[in-house]
Amino acid sequence: MAAVLVLLAALHALAACAEDVPILIDRLDGDAGIEAVLGGELDERFVAEDYAAVTPSRRGPVWYRIRLAHDWEATAPPVLSIADPQGLSLQTWLPPAYERVARDIYGTHPNHEFTRHALVVVLPRELRAHEAFYLRVDRGIATPRRVAVRPIAEARARDLVDARLDVLFPAIQLATLLVMLSFFVVLRDRVYAYFVGQMLFIVLFEFYQYGLGHEVPPFDLLARLGERASWLMASLAAALAIDFARQFLGLGHIAARLDRVLAALRWPLAALACLALLPFAHGWWVIDVLALVLLLVAPLLLAAGLVAWQQGGHRGGYYLCAWVPGLLCVIVRAVQLSLDWPQPPWLEFAMPAAFAYASVVLAFGLADHIVSVRHERDVAHRLAEYDGLTGVLNRRAILARLRAAFLAARDRGRPLAVLFVDLDHFKRINDSFGHRAGDQCLRAVIAPIASELRQGDALGRYGGEEFIAVLPGAGIASAEGVAERIRRRVERLPLMVSGTRVGLTISIGVATIDAQTATADELIEHADAALYRSKSGGRNRASTHGAGPSAPGEAGHAAHD
After folding, report:
1. Which residues contact 195 (CB under 8 A, 6 or more apart)?
2. CB-based contacts of 371: which residues, under 8 Å, 6+ apart?
3. Cis peptide before 268 (omega within 30 of 0)
4. How far apart are CA 210 and CA 351, in angstroms?
5. Secondary structure of residue 540 in the 3-state scheme
6. Residue 69 predicted with pLDDT over 80
7. If we measure between CA atoms, which residue out of 202, 204, 207 comes closest to residue 329?
């Protein structure tokens, strides 16, 4: 924000390096004829204005007589510039011939050496102080528009600064818009669509507000709407800003009543957007209605962000940090239009600068949203695949790993082994020490088992006190060695429960894939049968499918491949 404002101030300081030429300006209300005005018949009816501005009337046309305070002596011609020209239709009669010159920022632009940021008329090069030129301003919003006369070189320099700013801030918004659009395409989350929509219509509003949209294809297709194109985009941007805030802040969960109020305010905005498409919908009353709705929406959006922030939501903090400057500018602009005040000079670029700042901060907020969503997804994935008590894979996940390993082993002709592990006398432990002690035993055996497994092996809880270890690439000798080392580690485990040492042991069944093993389930059945032989043979031992039970310490010690 600070960098944007510093850049804004620097560019404005550059544009304001010279003072404007002093002028005298008089006003005449009423639809007088040009012959009577130029003939001097109405000179006494002109009233001097206190400041250099033209103000349309909602009742009818207004005439202005403008004179220089001193003769123009420079070799380059002077330029008349009228700021904030939205909705302003201007006709000018210049000496000595007093031919009519029409200006507005809509439709065909007759003066191509200047942008449409302001209405510009090049005055005669030898203009004298006693020679007046006349302006006729048609009916419109009664907002004063600043008038200045300056040398043409300075006018061009200021227009160049304005043009750069007109492009700079929308370019920042478009950059963040494209990034968020890519996120929406990948993630399909509506909050990104609402962000893209609101920023797109804000950019289009700025384009039409300063005339760029009326000369750049394909935006010029809406040029025939005139000033209605601006408030069409403003209405749509405000409606989507409401949807974005509701979705981003989760208002439906934290402030249901405020959420309903904001949802209801979308409808008058949608109605104003529809009116913008109708040829008869023009005039000051439309702007007044839009300004009134924005005066309701902007404080409510700030309140929504404050509520979300107070409830501990970091999204509320992002939202307030992003939108406080922009929404305050919207409130100032709405009040200014409603009360027919002149637009403050600082507001001219403060609003697009605030919108550009908001787009960047909200992009960070949405990136943080991605991190949160990813974390929630990882947590959900872990809860879906891992056993909550022991932290190893649950039954569904370990069976899925086994089936995948089985198919890979069959396709590639590689070995595969399964260890079926069961805690001995587990029911007796539960009955003697309680289920909490049983849970402690289940957790305790995980480390000795996992310590003998390689990267790529998988361990899961099959159910109760039963575990399955999947050993891809392990042959029978290797699997037997692993089983025996696991058995010994558990047997030596210094497990204390309620101050009493528990002698915990396990029985293991070992099975490996062979030509007769048709499915992964059949491989489990073989390991289960081997486990049964370990149990029936006295427990605390490992047995291999197809061989008899081994006594403790009799299994092979082959390395685990």
Report:
1. 177, 180, 244, 248, 362, 366
2. none
3. no
4. 13
5. coil
6. yes
7. 202
pLDDT tens readout for residues 352-391 = 999 999 999 998 888 877 777 676 676 767 777 888 888 8
Ranges of each domain in the chain: 2-157, 167-383, 395-544
How far the first Cα of the chain sits from its last, in Å, is 60
Question: Is pLDDT at 17 greater than 60 in this prediction?
Answer: no
Looking at domain 167-383, which CATH architecture does it have?
Up-down Bundle (1.20)
Q: At what angle do helices 190-209 and 228-249 cross, to 10 degrees?
A: 160
121/127 Cα distance (integer angstroms): 13
Assess whether pLDDT exceeds 80 at residue 285.
no
How many percent of the chain have pLDDT more than 90? 52
CATH of 395-544, one of 3.30.70.270, 2.60.15.10, 3.20.20.70, 2.170.16.10: 3.30.70.270
Q: Does the domain made of 2-157 have the CATH classification 2.60.40.2380?
A: yes
At residue 275, the pLDDT reads 87
Q: Which residues pair with 65 in a beta bridge?
A: 26, 134
- The CA distance from 18 to 74, in Å, is 15
Q: Distance between CA atoms of 61 and 141, rounded to whole angstroms?
A: 11
- What is d(CA 12, CA 1) in angstroms, rounded to the nearest whole number? 17
**Nearest partner of 534 among 557, 511, 558, judged by Cα:** 511
How far apart (Å, rounded) are the C-alpha atoms in residues 271 and 414? 69
Q: Which secondary-structure segment (H or E) carries 502?
A: strand 500-502
Residue 81 has what pLDDT? Answer: 93
CB 399 within 8 A of CB 420: no
Token pair, residue 329, equals 């500018």
Q: Which residue in this structure is represented by tokens 């001193």?
A: 70
Compute the average pLDDT of residues 529-546. 90
Distance of CA 210 to the CA centre of its chain: 25
Sorted by sequence, the CB contacts under 8 Å of residue 367 that are 6+ apart come out as none
Q: Is 466 helix (H, G, I), strand (E, B) or coil?
A: strand
Closest CA to 147 of 64, 236, 257, 223: 64
